[in-house]
Design a protein that fits this description.
Helix content is about 65%, strand content about 0%. It is built from 3 helices and no strands. The mean pLDDT is about 85.
Length: about 90
């Protein structure tokens, strides 16, 4: 498990832990997207509704980012208040 203080990263802890548990970073994606169109075409042929999946992933990702961002802002506000009280 990755140890970090809550609110110091906008990546959800579950994502960080999943990457630590079984993730592997590969090479950087080609600037032109590489073979992404062919891969997405294979998904579509397998019955995956790519547009619906993309919208769902974007929606979930945005909600998760906003939640983490708000947690980060709360930590900053709390520490700022603590510093002002100590001054």
């Amino acid at each position: 498990m990755i140890q970090r203080q809550p609110g110091f990263n906008t990546m959800p802890e579950a994502t960080l832990n999943a990457l630590a548990d079984h993730g592997e970073l590969g090479s950087i994606m080609a600037a032109d997207g590489g073979d992404c169109e062919a891969v997405l075409g294979q998904f579509a042929q397998a019955g995956v509704k790519v547009e619906i999946l993309a919208a769902q992933l974007q929606n979930e990702g945005a909600k998760s980012f906003v939640k983490s961002w708000n947690e980060l802002l709360a930590v900053i506000a709390s520490k700022s208040e603590a510093l002002q009280q100590a001054a």
